[in-house]
Amino acid sequence: RGASEAIFANLASGAFQKPVRTTAVVGEIYQPPADDARSPKRWKTARKEYLLSLLRVWYADENAIMRQKSTTSVTKWFAPLLAGVIRQGAQEGVLSTAFPDQAAEILIGLLQSLGETFKDLLFGSEPPAEKMQRATAVVAAYNDAMERVLGAPSGSLNLIDANTLNEWFVA
After folding, report:
1. Which end of the chain has less Cβ packing within 10 Å, N or C?
2. pTM of the model as a whole
3. Rounded (to 5) percent helix, strand, coil in the chain
4. Could you tell me if 94 and 152 are in contact, meaning their C-beta atoms sit under 8 angstroms apart?
C-alpha cells in the first residue's frame, strides 16, 4: 500500500509536473512498455497460473466476509486519494465532474465489479474465442462508463489492452 499511496498523494499534491499529473488522471501513469520484463502486465502474465490459483482461493465462498471487508477498507483508503487526483484533473480542465469524491467511489466500485466479471470469465466454461469477445466488450463498456463518470474525453481510457486480454482469455 505504501508505494501506491505515495504516488497518489504526490499526484494529488501537485508534486509532479503538470503533464505527468494530467496524463495520470486519465489513466496512463507511466509504466514500462508491455514487452519489458518489469511491466506489471508481463509480471502478471508470466505468473498466470499462480495468480489464477490465488483468485480461486480469494473467491471461495468461505472468503466472502474477507472480500467484503477488503472492499470497504480499500474504498475508505483509496477514494480520498483518487478524489484528489480527479479534483485536480477537473481544475486543469482535463476532467469535468462536479462530484470528485463520489466519482472516486463510483470508479472504485466499477473496478471491483470489473474484477468480478473477469473472474466469471476466467473460470467460466465458454470457449476461449467467446471469452475474448465478451472480455473485449466488457472492457470497452467499462472504459466508456469511467470516462462518463469522470467527464473525460471519449477514448481517453484503456483499462486493458487487446494483447493482455488475449494472453488471459485465449492463450
Report:
1. N
2. 0.75
3. 75, 0, 25
4. yes
